[in-house]
UniProtKB/TrEMBL annotation, chain A:
Keyword set, alphabetical order: ATP-binding, Cell membrane, Membrane, Nucleotide-binding, Transport
Protein name: ABC transporter ATP-binding protein
UniProt record similarity statement: Belongs to the ABC transporter superfamily.
Cellular compartments annotated: Cell inner membrane
GO molecular function: ATP binding
Organism annotation: Falsiroseomonas frigidaquae
Domain annotation ABC transporter: ranges: 4-259
Stored InterPro entries: AAA+_ATPase (IPR003593), ABC_Ni/Peptide_Import (IPR050388), ABC_transporter-like_ATP-bd (IPR003439), ABC_transporter-like_CS (IPR017871), Oligopep_ABC_C (IPR013563), P-loop_NTPase (IPR027417)
Keyword Transport: yes
Bilayer topology annotation: Peripheral membrane protein
TrEMBL record, chain B:
UniProt topology in membrane: Peripheral membrane protein
All copies of domain ABC transporter, residue ranges: 5-249
Organism annotation: Falsiroseomonas frigidaquae
Lineage: Bacteria, Pseudomonadati, Pseudomonadota, Alphaproteobacteria, Acetobacterales
Protein name per Swiss-Prot or TrEMBL: ATP-binding cassette domain-containing protein
InterPro entries: AAA+_ATPase, ABC_transp_ATP-bind, ABC_transporter-like_ATP-bd, ABC_transporter-like_CS, Oligopep_ABC_C, P-loop_NTPase
Amino acid sequence: MTLLRVEDLHTHFISRDLDNQIRVARALNGVSFALEPGRILGLVGETGAGKSLTATSIMGLLRPPARVVGGRALFEGRDLLAMPEAEVNALRGRDISLVVQSPKSSLDPLTRIGDQLIRIHRAHRKASEKAARERAVEMLASLGIPDPARRMAAWPHELSGGMAQRVLIALALMNAPRLLIADEPTTGLDVTVQAQILDLLRDLVRRTGIGAMIITHDLGVVAHYCDEMAVMYAGAIVESGPVRQVFANPSHPYTANLIGATPERLRLGGPRTVGGPPPNLFRLPEGCAYRDRCPQAGADCATPPPDVALGAGHVARCHRVAA
Amino acid sequence: MNPVLQVEDLKKHFPAQGGRTVHAVNGVSFSIAAGETLGVVGESGSGKSTIGRAVIRLLKPTAGRIRFQGRDITHLPESACRPLRAEMQMVFQDPWSALNPRVRIGDLIAEPLLLHTKSSRSERQDRAEHLARRVRLTTELLTRYPAELSGGQLQRVCIARAIATQPKLIVLDEPTSSLDLSVRAGILELLAELKAETGVAMMFISHDLGTVKLISDRIMVLYLGGMVEYAPAARVFAQPAHPYSQALMSAHLPADPEAVLRRHVLEGEIPSPIALPPGCHFASRCPVAVPACQETAPELRAVHGDAQHQAACLRIAEGANRIPETAHG
Ligand SMILES: Nc1ncnc2c1ncn2[C@@H]1O[C@H](COP(=O)(O)OP(=O)(O)OP(=O)(O)O)[C@@H](O)[C@H]1O
Ligand SMILES: Nc1ncnc2c1ncn2[C@@H]1O[C@H](COP(=O)(O)OP(=O)(O)OP(=O)(O)O)[C@@H](O)[C@H]1O
Ligand SMILES: [Mg+2]
Ligand SMILES: [Mg+2]
């Protein structure tokens, strides 16, 4: 069974302005993707595209004024968005884990890391203090943390960025989840540390068959560690498919532009890469949201673009793409 | 031709708690010619920013010699450094905090002209418009405030300020790290253009190996404040000689799924710059270290007789510097 299937997810920020008029920011506009067990999906897109919001929407972690206004998020066939809150809470931290962006701020600064690991385990699984402690030490060791028994007593502020990130991943894995969502798990870390952490994640997925979604804006991470990728623009997936295929044949003009802007493809002194301001979520244009920035836009782009299947699970949402 | 910048055996130490010393930079030597871009790479804390700030004399060096356009500026007093700043400029990582939020963009761009030239108000205004166009900002932005611009636009403002006085050297400390890919590409294109047109020398500091590879002519690899390798950019990526460079380059993830990775995983953690080990600073983590490495600090030497390619490793001479690969995937 598909581990996670997100269908047409819409999340809005609904607020009132000074004149008491309702203002709606359409931050997610029909996000759809699927993740199979034992696979790694990379979710990419520029800042503000809605990557983190996709994760928090699925996990039921939105705070007002953000609200899911449509769509489904099926975890092993059950819709997380329609479940009673108690059930979602029971799944979260046990069967589904989220590693949030910015590692330092998400560790409890007043609790030793060992106690944090033990606490999350015992909150969700029946385990003695001793068994939980043993599992915590094992988990730290398996994440390549030297001298794990001693590190259990460390305070968060004593950890380097790379160590803090490993501890966060250890926390996420303590309860052997079946789905792991990691939001920018290696951003800001040195490349050598990044590679180690991603190696660990990939080994874990291959060994245990869990499914993982990595949110990143680093296409190098996607190219080498993900099986599938989904490209997000203005709150929608504009292209998705197997990584090699999307890189070899980027079909949505936004994807082509994004991949063309990587240092590997960029030709300094060649034709200019088109950047542009991010779209205004309060006033998204009708039809394709990329229209204003798109070099290939035409009159038909004012109507909603179709999802065009390009074979082997490769899909692009664009009027210009021929199947 | 004389290099724009010549640095010999530069050291910078900071005082630390308990009377101890942080050995941030431990004897680096390099030069940058007009029109040349030197890339500086190394892990966090390896001394990149400290070197950048020392060479334009925002910091006072502990030892060594810095020559700028042939002139020894190592010990210039602060008052004499100020006029020099018209000729050597710096661009920082975070454009949001680099600019005064209460000053209009036009005045921000004109500020270096006010500080360093005797131009009239209207001359400065003309020049600011010219500079804005030069970095591809529309002139309507000149009357706005920083909060109304995007990160990429603000970084262009910082670059416009840096080139306002036609400097001979610009130190760029992670100038594109906080920017989105397509915005970053635009900035890199701009820098390449400026370099070709003005012949300015650049020192480009970055964690992003792909970007450094693209923009640099030569690259210097740092480990714990020391230079371990110094070579043309393509060489450092294709044939890194120092074991640390090999490990660092192998961790680079090019945005191309077909690129083959040769992964070398390093064990252990970087030693503290307060208690530097004797001998080669990398020896404690080096897979090919021998006892001699712990004793003698290796000097930069030409690799296989190629003066362009230098590395500091005892094991190169015996051809024993290659570290083993681990399989990827
Ligand atoms: N209170 C709010 N009202 C309106 N829009 C909001 C509000 N809070 C966030 N947003 C918007 O929601 C969008 C989704 O943001 P999200 O954090 O998911 O982006 P992201 O893709 O994770 O970006 P990054 O790469 O910077 O982490 C952004 O465009 C943001 O501006
Ligand atoms: N003002 C200071 N006082 C004390 N120590 C300092 C000071 N500035 C830098 N250091 C230390 O000097 C060393 C080199 O720091 P530097 O900022 O140059 O590294 P970097 O290579 O730029 O790192 P990053 O990639 O994180 O920017 C570090 O150990 C740092 O803690
Ligand atoms: Mg985010
Ligand atoms: Mg720095």
